[in-house]
């Protein structure tokens, strides 16, 4: 029996990591609205960013609105979490297991090659290693799409400041003479840190294979035919593949199923305010609105206002993309407040047949069957918690994923917000990620709760309703569609990281200003 040395195993794992990532990106070519025209593996046109390359035609827009012709990915797998990204490590060749050139030097060379060819490309480094939270780099890498925050790095501070040391160090290392030259080098860089481990990557691959109508990998199998296939194709000099070329190869290897149900619609659009899990929205939709510029990760930027900045952009996008009588499927990889506002803008009177695409283990269009009633599904249970008899506002805690009434009570105390009563709603079958069965169930639950709340508000003739929700975005979309009867309403965002401002923060206020 042959045993591999401990030094060989991480290298083999790294090869498998790269191959899995290639297939995840390759599956994008099978999306119905893809703009990926070619995928490459170990592509040596631009050195050092050659692991995986996606080519777009027509070019796609990045979060800044710039047109992107290709994405170059460099995968750096590590068997343990024994290292981390720092601004100084990006100047150290050993950090990327190189002898002569650092990551930043390779980035500059790659960018110069792309510019010489007349292309605007992005350059990614993808690794399970994290960014050292105590290092300056952690303050300038965005959680949106991994880009560097130029406003933070080039903040006008002197060369001896924290950011100044980074600028001076990087300029000296790259032989650059000005901040503008450094900006140009860094603009296409994307750092995707703390990326998935091998087990998580395989789960993602199986989901993408199913969507692309390719045979999933059997659970517990010791053989991954896709890894073996791309590595053997490389041996024969095959590095670039169009959809038809890759499809033919998969058919010859008996990996093509071709019978999975695909999302069917007249038009597919999307709105994104999160990047992770929504990296490929450009290839899943005919058009999309990217709102990443308004957020630092999940948090809205300090100078951004929900109603003044974000809502008007959503309204403009929907007005330009949707016509009365159309049938629309909409991806909502976004904050729940955005899903709520989109529904509010596309209420049933708009004349549009629109349904949200819910992302669970797979993508499903949650278009409700309005011939059914709530009697066919689990319904709401409720309780009323009296708070302050002198207050005029009310609050509602809608707990589908989990019961949130205690969190809401705690937030109201912390925020100094007085309400007359809290209406707590939860499903009679219990909470959980899969508590809502399908789109019909989501719509009926939203319709039912709006009806209940409308009665409560009209009986008490109180002031503003404060809405707190822990539910899938599809439910929030339907809730927004039906909420016009609720009067003055404020929808709150939950703080998933529970760090900056407590459990919740106020987001969108209704009704919207009429134009």
Structural notes for this entry:
The chain has 515 residues and is an alpha/beta fold. The chain has 14 helices and 21 strands. Strands 7-5-3-2-1-8 form a 6-stranded mixed sheet, with helices on both faces. Strands 16-18-17-19-20-21 form a 6-stranded mixed sheet, sandwiched between helices. The protein has a 5-stranded mixed sheet with strand order 10-9-13-14-15. α12 links the parallel β17 and β18. α1 (8-26) crosses α7 and α11 packs parallel to α14. It is globular. The protein starts with 7 loop residues before the first helix and ends in a 5-residue tail after the last strand. 40% of the residues are buried.
Top keywords for this entry?
single chain; about 525 residues; alpha/beta; six-stranded mixed β-sheet; 14 helices
- Describe the largest sheet: 6 strands, mixed
Number of helices: 14
Helix content: 25-40%
Given as residue ranges, the uncertain stretches (5+ residues, pLDDT < 50) are 260-265, 498-502
Radius of gyration: 25 Å
Return the average pLDDT rounded to an integer: 89
Strand order of the largest sheet: 7-5-3-2-1-8
Shape: globular
Give the beta-strand count: 21
Instruction: Quickly give the structural class.
Output: alpha/beta
**Between the first and last Cα atoms, what is the distance in angstroms?**
76 Å
Beta-strand percentage range:
15-25%
């Amino acid at each position: 029996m042959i045993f591999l040395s401990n030094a060989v195993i991480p290298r083999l794992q790294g090869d498998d990591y790269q191959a899995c990532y290639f297939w995840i990106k390759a599956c994008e070519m099978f999306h119905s609205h893809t703009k990926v025209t070619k995928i490459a593996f170990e592509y040596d046109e631009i050195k050092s960013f050659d692991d995986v390359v996606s080519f777009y035609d027509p070019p796609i827009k990045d979060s800044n609105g710039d047109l992107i012709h290709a994405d170059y990915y460099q995968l750096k797998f590590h068997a343990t979490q024994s290292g981390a990204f720092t601004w100084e490590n990006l100047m150290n060749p050993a950090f990327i297991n190189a002898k002569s050139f650092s990551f930043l030097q390779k980035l500059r060379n790659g960018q110069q090659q792309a510019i010489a060819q007349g292309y605007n490309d992005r350059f990614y480094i993808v690794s399970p290693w994290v960014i050292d939270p105590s290092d300056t780099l952690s303050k300038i890498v965005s959680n949106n799409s991994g880009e560097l925050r130029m406003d933070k790095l080039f903040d006008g501070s002197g060369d001896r400041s924290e950011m100044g040391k980074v600028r001076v160090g990087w300029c000296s290392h790259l032989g650059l003479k000005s901040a503008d030259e450094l900006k140009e080098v860094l603009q296409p860089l994307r750092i995707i840190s703390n990326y998935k481990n091998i087990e998580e990557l395989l789960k993602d691959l199986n989901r993408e294979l199913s969507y692309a109508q390719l045979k999933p990998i059997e659970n517990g199998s010791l053989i991954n035919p896709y890894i073996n296939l791309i590595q053997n194709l490389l041996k024969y000099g095959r590095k670039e593949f169009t959809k038809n070329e890759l499809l033919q190869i998969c058919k010859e290897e008996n990996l093509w199923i071709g019978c999975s149900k695909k999302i069917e619609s007249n038009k597919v659009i999307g709105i994104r305010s999160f990047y992770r899990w929504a990296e490929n929205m450009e290839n899943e939709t005919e058009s999309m609105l990217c709102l990443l510029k308004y957020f630092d990760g999940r948090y809205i930027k300090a100078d951004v206002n929900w109603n003044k900045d974000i809502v008007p952009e959503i309204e403009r996008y929907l007005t330009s993309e949707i016509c009365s009588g159309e049938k629309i499927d909409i991806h909502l990889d976004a904050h729940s407040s955005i899903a709520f506002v989109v529904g509010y803008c596309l209420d049933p009177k708009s004349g549009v047949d629109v349904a949200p695409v819910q992302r669970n283990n797979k993508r499903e269009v949650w278009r409700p069957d309005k011939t059914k009633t709530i009697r066919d599904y689990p319904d709401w249970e409720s309780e009323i918690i009296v708070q302050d008899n002198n207050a005029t506002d009310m609050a509602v805690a809608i707990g589908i994923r989990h019961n949130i009434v205690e969190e809401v009570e705690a937030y109201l105390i912390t925020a100094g917000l007085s309400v007359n009563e809290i209406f707590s709603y939860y499903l009679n079958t219990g909470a959980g990620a899969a508590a809502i069965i399908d789109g019909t169930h989501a719509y009926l639950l939203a319709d039912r709760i709006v009806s209940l709340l409308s009665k409560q508000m009209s009986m008490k003739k109180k002031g503003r309703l404060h809405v707190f929700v822990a539910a899938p975005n599809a439910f929030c979309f339907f809730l927004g569609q039906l909420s016009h009867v609720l009067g003055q309403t404020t929808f709150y965002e939950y703080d998933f990281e529970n760090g900056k401002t407590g459990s919740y923060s106020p987001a969108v206020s209704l009704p919207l200003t009429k134009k």
